[in-house]
């Protein structure tokens, strides 16, 4: 009996059974063989059927293997090293291979020849078909009448001799009577088939057959992912590594290879065990190495034998198709192997990975097609999740993503934030609820960033195109959303760059499906096909449309990181976009669009654009809804963005009843829709006033009908388009007592209407002025704000000594850092306003910084900067920008601008000076002041403690400011305040003070101020605190 070494003990036990019960029969599956008279057998059903007691035993791990020789037969020999086939040797072997491989058989051991260590027996197909008789009857083997000892013969010898004589008479098989048949049956073998692989041209073989399937017969399985194959029809004998995977190693045996090889190739026995693998004779060096390492046994890796067994039962001695993918640096062939299973062909690599018997290997997978790589990678991930076999003890890496289950919903798209983020109004949540709108980030894709204009970040290439692509297809459309996972991300842009570790937010990701295709989508519709993973898509996958147009890329997730349920479809769409050179994958320069954002510019700049916009009705796109009646519009024709407000229509202000509902209505109706506007004028803040239509519907009428706005008749109805419709809409809401009119009583409009709103209590703040700028602007800190003392304590507790290392700390514009104030050497939070170009060189490089808690600005050297310490609170800056209400103060560039700034500094700066700031208005346009921050500007009346005269009145009294132009629709309160202030202005005019020294300038337009004289052109610095 010949047994593989690692199963020697098990088969030793079986041998004892066989000796005791010679009539014992076994059920096996034929795995392979070495010649037509040698059948290589393996347990398949792992059953031992004993006739004495009927017991069933099972083997742990891969079942043991056994070799048995058909008794009394001699088959033609296949070629050995440097030799040739005997006539009909290959045909004889092929007959037996096709007859037995993969079939269940039973066998009986007839006798054993101890001198050569072999067992001889009879093998039966289907329980009654004697294989030896079938072989002899077809003429593929001859019968040996008697062995060396008595009894060494088949019990069916007489029948075998009769069948042999019959096949001779019929001229079957090796007894063919056709002239030249014997010579024709001898194969013309290449050197690699007879033990000389050195002449194999691997690169030439790859070049001739790259990507084309090649037929072959597997002769040996070295491990689960390495096989040796005869390539047909030329019989090239090659070793092929399965592409894209690596199975566990089979280790190395302790026995010296020299003895095994020489024994295999020097036996003269007719029924000798010819090796399935031609081996070269050992050199002296190899003999020495073999003898020195004979005892160095290396055990198989875990699941190595199982992987080898898996490949053997599917491929060994079977016909397979091999697609060569590449050649490594050692001239080893890398290929994909497909074996038959019924009417289909199975991918060996994929089957091994799916069963946890091989791992994905990037270097060889890169030779394969993208689809094949994706399948392998996905299969490995599933095997890891299921912890199959070699992944039993796999510990997944930490991830910040978490699956979201059972949170699918339907709704209408309200906003497209970017190419990979949209806002959807959930149909199941009541209209107007703050939870109705849900932000959905498209799973597993990344599109170019839109940038941030307030931080001077421009949109990346194709960012606008990606957003516009989705806007035109999704806004207002019904979609189905499948939420898939969430991820916790740290805010790392802008002022939050140095935020504390806890300063993070959770982003929700999902797949969005458009229920009906948009007319003109073309190839987008065809591209969105159901996922290969078997997930039926409920519509067009929006992420797939974006990726297919080349407006984004698919994220390469790490193992166990949550991803889109339609990840394979996204990768396929990306491959199509790359091959089609679409969007970001194109070699062409990206389209360039320069948009002038007037919402960030000065009011004067906005007025300069008015003549170009005041030309009747013009198309626009609503970029954002700022409030119920105020919006940001994109005017493509003039390549500008503007702030726009309805003429004569006002919604409740922030934190007032129905304010949020008015915003929600406008977002549903016009957010990112194509609209038509008619611009009439521009106000002092740079906001354009006029009328707006969406689908020929005046949206101001919609607001008034819903009872979410009021008509301001003081604006002048003669200037408002369709004013009669606005009046009718407001009257309708009043009659129905909708929203803001719920307490309306006819005839009491004054008491319950506008006057009530205007007479509401004004907000008062106790402040200290920390910095004075030009033009009547200054920074304040709110008294009693606990954040001030907390941040001061945190800064004082820092132990800041060593200077930063050049290269390790490279602050750039917009970064929040710690800076040392030059006046008192204290450390404060600051924002970099300007930095040296090309990075820091000498340590005395200068940086311009803005102290976010005080409002002042100065230049400091690199050595006076430190990275922002996480222990310091990352709250927004404490300095609030304010402006004097009702006044126009000369800027520093204008005459008397310096004197005005000096006077304001003298009146307000000082640690002991405290003020009450009455907020008259909030300017939310967010204009910049010398780069020193953005955001809401408080328009205030400033009154010193224990003083009856406001700073506003004092500025007028000194002739260092003047009243702003009065409006036609002023409230009674405003009119009263202006009348009071006008008395101080008249006093300055009479006394020829300041700007009135030459009399009345005769204009209220701020651009008509007297020009700055050369004598007072020099600016003054402003002090901190």
Describe the structure.
By secondary structure, this protein is of the alpha+beta class. It is 25% helix and 26% strand. It is built from 26 helices and 46 strands. The strands form eleven sheets. It has a five-stranded mixed β-barrel with strand order 1-2-3-6-5. Strand 1 and strand 2 (38-47) form a beta hairpin. Helix 3 (131-137) runs parallel beside helix 4, helix 12 runs antiparallel to helix 16 (567-579) and helix 25 (951-957) runs parallel beside helix 26. The radius of gyration is 44 Å and the shape is elongated. Mean pLDDT is 79; it is low at 1-27, 39-59, 256-286, 492-502, 529-534, 749-759, 927-931 and 1003-1025. It comes from Hibiscus sabdariffa (roselle). It is found in: Cytoplasm. Cytoprotective ribonuclease (RNase) required for resistance to abiotic stresses, acting as a positive regulator of mRNA decapping during stress. Residues 48-177, 212-393, 407-587, 616-743 form the TNase-like domain. Residues 995-1025 are annotated as: Disordered.
Name some characteristics of this structure.
membrane, alpha+beta, 5-stranded mixed barrel, 1025 residues, 25% helix, 26 helices, disordered N terminus
Q: What's the N-to-C terminus distance?
A: 100 Å
Poorly predicted runs are 1-27, 39-59, 256-286, 492-502, 529-534, 749-759, 927-931, 1003-1025
Query: Helix/strand-derived class?
Result: alpha+beta
Q: Estimate the global geometry from the Cα principal axes.
A: elongated
Number of strands: 46
Task: Please state roughly what percent of the residues sit in beta strands, choosing from under 5%, 5-15%, 15-25%, 25-35%, 35-45% or over 45%.
Answer: 25-35%
- Average pLDDT for all residues: 79
Q: Into which percent range does the helicity of residues fall?
A: 10-25%
Largest β sheet strand count, sense and barrel closure: 5 strands, mixed, barrel
